[in-house]
Structures are given as C-alpha cells and as structure tokens.
Amino acid sequence: PGEVSRVKDLLYPSMAVLHKLLSQLFSWSGISFLLQLMGTALLAVVGVWTLRLLVRHAWYTHRLSCFNKPPTHSWLIGHLGQMQSTEEGLQQVDELVQTYKHSCSWFFGPFYHMVRVFHPDYVKPLLMASANITMKDEFVYGHLRPWLGRSLLISNGEEWSRKRRLLTPAFHFDILKNYIVTFNSSTNTMHNKWHRLVAGGTTNIEMFDHVTLMTLDSLLKCAFSYQSNCQESTSQYVSAIMELSDLLIDRRFRILHQWDWIYWKTEQGKRFKQALSVVHRFTRDVVQMRRALIDQQRETETLTSMTTAQQKKKDFVDLILLSKDEDGQGLTDEEIQAEANTFMFAGHDTTASAICWTLYNLARHPHYQEKCRQEVMELMQGRDGHEIEWEDLSNLPFTTMCIKESLRLHSPVQAVTRKYTQDVALPGDLTVPQGVICLVSLYGTHHNPEVWTNPHEFDPLRFEPTNTQSRSSHGFIPFSSGPRNCIGQKFAMAELRVVVALTLLRFRLTPGVNPEAGSGSGKVRRLPQLVLRAEGGLWLQLEDLNESSFGNK
Ligand code: HEM
User: Fold this and answer.
1) Where are the transmembrane segments (predicted)?
2) Fewer beta carbons below 10 Å: N end or C end of the chain?
3) Which atom of ligand 1 lies closest to the CA of 219?
4) Does a cis peptide bond (omega within 30 degrees of 0) precede residue 397?
C-alpha cells in the first residue's frame, strides 16, 4: 500500500497538468491556438519549399543562360505544354533544329529545366560520358518501375554496371545465331496469315497489329522458349503486355496521374495493376521453373554432361540464370524477372516499329523495293524453300542500307533522356550543369540538315560505305550510343533483316489506305508514342507473289 500511494503521489500532479493542457486545447481558445500553430508550420514548409524552388530556378536559369532559349508562353510555366506527341510535335523539332542548329534550353515551369540536343558533336559528349556519372531520371523513367523493377534500362551506377556485365554475354553473336530459326518461323506464321487474308480478298492491311504480334511471338520464344501461339489466338500474357504499353502512354498525358498515390486509385491505375499481376506471375513462374530445372540437373548430372546441357540452353532466361560475376555471384530470381520483363518491353514495340516503317518506306519507293527483292532472290537462288540463315545476313548489303535509312528517317525511339552527377562540357564553351535533364533527340539528330542533305527524303545510298566514312560517328544513333546504348541492337538488326527479306520474297508492297480516313490524301501522320507509330495505323497493300503457304503453318 505504501508503494501504491507513492506512485499515486507521483502520477497525480502530472495527470493534473495533462488534464489542464487538454482542456485548454479543447476549449475554443485552445483549438484556435492549435490551428494557428498548424497554419504557421504549413506556411513555413511552403515558404521553405518555394524558396528552395526559386533558388534552384535562379541557379539553373543562370547556368543555362549560355544556351539559346526559344520563346516561352510565360515566365512561370515556360515551355510547359509546347512539346506535343503528334505530327506537329515532330515538325516543331524540325523547326528547333533549323533555328538553333545544335541545342537549346527548355523550361517545364515551374519545376523542370531541360537541355535539348540535336547535333552529333553535341550529342557525343553526353552519350559517351562515363556510366558512373550518367543517371536515368525518375521524372521520365519512373512510371516504368512498377513493371520493370530495378532492371538494366532504369538502374544506375554500380548496380547497372554489374547487370550489364552479366547480361552482355546473352547477346553475343554465337547466341544470336540460334534465334534465326525462330525469326524465320514467326515470320512464316505472320505471312501465312497475310496469305490467307489476300486469298480471301483482303489486301489492305494494317501493319502494326500484325507485326507487333509477330515480334512478341518471337521474343517469347527467344526469352522464355514459350510457344504462345499469340499470332493465331488470344494470349492473356500478350494482351497484358499490350495493355501495359497503352496505359503507359495514356498516363503521360494526364497531369494528375503523375502522382502514384492518385494514379493507383484511378480506373487506369487499377487496370495497370491487374495487367501487371498477369505479366509478373508469368515471368515469376517461368524463372522459378527454370531455376528448379537447372538445380535438378546440377544434382543429377556430371560436370561434362552439365556443360553439354548448358550449351543446349538457348533462351535468355536460361543464359541469365547461368551467368555469374567475377565473385561467382549470379542474379537473384527477382532480378532475372525484372530483366526478362525489360527485354519484352524494350524489344517488341521498337522492333515492330522499325519493321513497319521499313516496309512502308519500301512501299513508297518501288525501285528500292525491287532492288532489295532482287538481292534476296539472288541469295535464295537454287535453294529449296525460303529459310534465311545466319550467314545470309551479311549478304544483304542493299536491304541493310534500306533498313538503316528507315531507322534514320523513322527512328522507333525519338529521344533518350539523361541526367549527370557532374557538369558535362559541350563544344562552343557550353556546359550542361549537373542535375539538369538532358533530352538527346535522336529524331532531331537524324533530321539535322547540317548532317544530312534533304533529311526528309528516303535515300538508302546515304549508307553506302563510301558515304558513311565522312559522316560524324554520332549522326546515326537509332540505338543510342555509348555505355548505355541498346543491348539488343544486334538481335533487332538480325530480326529486321530476316523479316524484311522474307516479306519481299513473298509480297509486293504498295501504300495502303486507312479505311477510317476515307479516300483522302492518304498522307500518313506520324505518332510519336513510346515508339514511333502512325495515327490510325500504317496501312499497306499486299500482292501475294507466291501461291502456296510458307514454312510452318
Ligand atoms: C529496332 C529495335 C530497337 C531499337 C530502335 C532500340 C533502341 C534503344 C535505345 C534508343 C535505347 C537507349 C534507351 C535509353 O537510353 O533510355 C535502348 C536501350 C535498351 N534496349 Fe533497345 N532497341 C531495340 C531493340 C531492343 C531489343 C530487341 C532488346 C532486347 C531483346 C532491347 C533491349 C534494350 C535494353 C535492355 C536497353 C537498356 C540498355 C542499358 O541501359 O544498358 N532493345 N534501346
């Protein structure tokens, strides 16, 4: 009882103080005091935040004053809203290139400053800068993170460099050789569909629908050895990938959807999450299954037979599962899933866009189309059937020139963005300050009249070896360049050559008509989204040059 009364003695005074304080707070004067306190705190936070923004703004305005700045709508919002993902947006880039020749500064008021670069001499120091100081910005790449995790495309620094070392062997020529059979068979499936459509009287065909399914089909076989049959019937995984790509584009144009906490509550955010769960479940299951298989083989097989088993493995997931760094460490299952998702994301739309625009350019230039066809026919002379082999790829020089010219004129990727942790010096005493977003315009560089005469004309002869020697190394950069260039470029170039060669062997192409646009001018309006597309699709007329069907059905 003595202890209890001591505790009571101690507690009662403090309880009394607490009671007084609470009653004061909950009295009218207390509430108003509390509100005043909160209001002052809020004002202080907003004040500090605004001051920080103003100082940052003044700092970047000063540092970027060496760059030309196109006129803005207002001092507050700057160029916000002036960059459009439309045909007009691309024409605006042409105007910037005409006017400013190499670079200009840009201001997405009230927060973001940007440097836009579109001349090879200015692009080069930025793309060739060490990967240690190069960063992918969350502002631009952040929306990809829920899908791609911390993968090669969006990671930075040491994490990126380790992943790049581990993944590079998967794109070695010796590995890519094995995929040629897949490129042939996926193309055959697409051509058999075209063959049936033409036989049934449908000759006007939208290319992106068909070619995107074909590139997804072939990537699924190369990445996961998965026979999705997605060109012939609906695949839940493929539909989910397409949904994710569409939703990413949609999100770009909705200001409120930029904040995750708002986005995930919207109808689009919920659809994104749903599609994400389909895609992630698929990749997780494949990786876990393969890991189990490899572990099982390790246990049961001798070292020699293991080597043979390893050699037999051909798909990306197997190769990545087996790759180890200098310390004998490989990637975790989560990391492998992220990379597999990235290959699917980065590889299907880009290659589809490149194929569609190449076919479109050849349709518009029948003499070049015929020259390519002759080249392919000579190559295939005396052979049974149509099968492009690895060794054939280097024997298609003119077709390759047409593909490259198409990649210049209609680059699938319009621009890449970077940030640097140090200042980067450009020619003419210009400096890109650390932390500022740099938009390297692949489109602008490829259409810069200082580099290319008549840049809007399709002229494959630009890529004749004698003509390429005198050109700047950074005038042609569809796969970007430097340490963060495209890891899949040889894969893509091989697939492009197989698809274009087989298509020309089997079909004659002429410009088609978008049925919804009616019989208007037929002028194609470019649509720069995640990759370059065409408004209302890209329509071509097909004439079947062969009676029978092709290869696998
Ligand atoms: C014609 C087809 C393709 C084009 C035009 C293309 C273009 C590009 C470009 C411009 C970049 C740099 C992106 C940036 O810096 O933000 C890039 C990066 C990348 N690409 Fe491709 N790509 C193509 C096909 C592929 C394929 C088939 C794959 C995989 C199978 C692939 C995988 C990647 C990856 C993983 C990166 C990130 C590399 C890194 O940061 O280390 N790409 N691609």
Assistant:
1) 33-55
2) N
3) 30
4) no
